[in-house]
């Protein structure tokens, strides 16, 4: 059973998705967003590529960090870039993502991890990482996770990717969000050139900007208005609850927690936030193609803060692009039986419990 914090986290995540989804200038934000979400619910396939970069990262060093692990971690992450390619097909359902970790510097290396998923199973290909000394028998093979068995072990129904239901939920939440949030505060139309987008086929761009000063009114609005209404929406819709794996008792507890924390807890948390966070700047661009799909997104998050005399700072940039929307997406397909490690093989190698749904 989930606790109320996970419910609130889910609501916050939905809000971020709504704000990042964007709008166009010809209609109100709510109208355009709902049109886009409705259109997105019709997506049956797509190819994708994206990347995540961390720069100028500084992690706080604890008093007992005599070996300088924080500095080592900062240097490692700042020299690493995560990128991915892949695709999705609704019928028969198959999703594929090829993660690539590119590490620069003295430990320069590139690690590729292919991941495949259908309605019932997940496969992860074991990468070749010399420093880990993995057995040769498993390198290049797939570890299989039986999602159906895993769900049965947890007493739950198997959950598959359901873009249609997700978009319906976002559509309903968007109506609640824009009823309470000033659109002009967070969204504006910009040109692709001004946004620094060089991707072809982008017809319109919407920019979302959130700074430290905007966090307090946003959190207050979520706590007082958006949160309770979203909880009511989930309470009335069993399909949404099943997708999010929420019980009604979780929602009841979350709503009670919101009501109790309106005055004291939220104010205290916000005061701590203002003291510990010196800089927070989140800037995202949503590119909309000629067919009305939000096919491009980038986000840049810059932060700096201190806590107990220790400072932390850094910049994170994420870019994602969808192509071949509703087209003939090329996927590598499910792995062959001889390329999949069985439970017995894993057990013999001293790696029990990784396959067959026991992960």
Features:
359 residues; alpha+beta; 12 helices; 12 strands; 38% helix; globular; disordered N terminus; disordered C terminus
Characterization of this structure:
It is a single chain. With 359 residues, the chain is an alpha+beta fold. 38% of the residues lie in helices and 31% in strands. The chain is built from twelve helices and twelve strands. The chain has helices spanning 4-21, 29-40, 69-78, 147-153, 163-180, 183-186, 192-195, 212-236, 238-244, 248-261, 264-276, 343-348, and strands spanning 45-58, 80-89, 94-103, 109-117, 121-125, 142-146, 187-190, 202-211, 277-289, 294-307, 310-323, 340-341. A twelve-stranded mixed beta sheet has the order 7-8-9-10-11-1-2-3-4-5-6-12. It is globular and about 55 Å long.
Summarize the structure.
With 359 residues, the chain is of the alpha+beta class.
Topology summary:
Layout: H1 4-21, H2 29-40, E1 45-58, H3 69-78, E2 80-89, E3 94-103, E4 109-117, E5 121-125, E6 142-146, H4 147-153, H5 163-180, H6 183-186, E7 187-190, H7 192-195, E8 202-211, H8 212-236, H9 238-244, H10 248-261, H11 264-276, E9 277-289, E10 294-307, E11 310-323, E12 340-341, H12 343-348
Helix pairs in contact: 1-5, 1-8, 1-10, 2-5, 5-8, 8-10
Q: Give the strand content.
A: 25-35%
How much helical structure, as a percent, in the residues? Answer: 25-40%
Give the biggest beta sheet: 12 strands, mixed
What's the average pLDDT? 80
Note the gap between the termini: 19 Å
Structural class: alpha+beta
Given the structure, what is the number of helices? 12
Main sheet: which strands, in order across?
A: 7-8-9-10-11-1-2-3-4-5-6-12
| E-strand count | 12
H-E string = HHEHEEEEEHHHEHEHHHHEEEEH
Uncertain segments of ≥5 residues (pLDDT<50)? 1-5, 20-26, 353-359
Computed over alpha carbons, the radius of gyration is: 22 Å
Per the principal axes of the C-alpha atoms, what is the gross shape?
globular
């Amino acid at each position: 059973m989930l606790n109320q914090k996970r419910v609130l986290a889910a609501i916050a995540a939905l809000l971020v998705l709504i704000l990042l989804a964007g709008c166009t200038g010809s209609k109100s934000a709510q109208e355009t967003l709902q049109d886009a979400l409705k259109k997105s619910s019709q997506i049956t396939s797509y190819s994708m590529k994206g990347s995540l970069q961390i720069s100028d990262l500084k992690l706080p060093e604890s008093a007992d960090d005599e070996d300088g692990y924080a500095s080592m971690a900062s240097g490692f992450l700042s020299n690493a870039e995560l990128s991915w390619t892949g695709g999705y097909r609704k019928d028969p359902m198959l999703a594929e993502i090829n993660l690539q970790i590119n590490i620069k510097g003295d430990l320069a290396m590139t690690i590729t991890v292919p991941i495949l998923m259908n309605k019932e199973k997940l496969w992860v290909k074991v990468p070749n990482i010399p420093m880990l000394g993995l057995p040769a028998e498993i390198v290049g093979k797939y570890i299989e996770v039986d999602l159906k068995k895993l769900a049965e072990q947890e007493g739950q129904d198997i959950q598959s990717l359901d873009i249609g239901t997700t978009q319906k939920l976002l559509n309903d939440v968007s109506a609640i969000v824009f009823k309470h949030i000033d659109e002009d505060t967070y969204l504006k139309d910009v040109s692709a050139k001004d946004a620094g987008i060089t991707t072809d086929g982008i017809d319109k761009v919407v920019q979302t900007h959130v700074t430290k000063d905007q966090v307090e009114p946003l959190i207050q609005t979520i706590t007082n208005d958006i949160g309770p209404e979203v909880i009511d929406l989930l309470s009335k819709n069993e399909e949404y609850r099943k997708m999010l794996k929420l019980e009604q008792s979780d929602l009841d507890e979350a709503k009670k927690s919101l009501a109790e924390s309106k005055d004291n807890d939220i104010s205290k948390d916000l005061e701590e936030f203002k003291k510990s966070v010196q800089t927070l700047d989140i800037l995202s661009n949503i590119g909309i193609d000629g067919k009305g799909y939000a096919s491009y997104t980038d986000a840049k998050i810059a932060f700096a803060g201190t806590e107990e005399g220790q400072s932390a700072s850094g910049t994170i940039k994420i870019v994602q692009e969808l192509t071949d929307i509703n087209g003939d997406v090329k996927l590598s397909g499910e792995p062959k039986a001889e390329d999949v490690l069985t439970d017995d093989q894993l057990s013999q190698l001293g790696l029990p419990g990784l396959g067959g749904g026991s992960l």
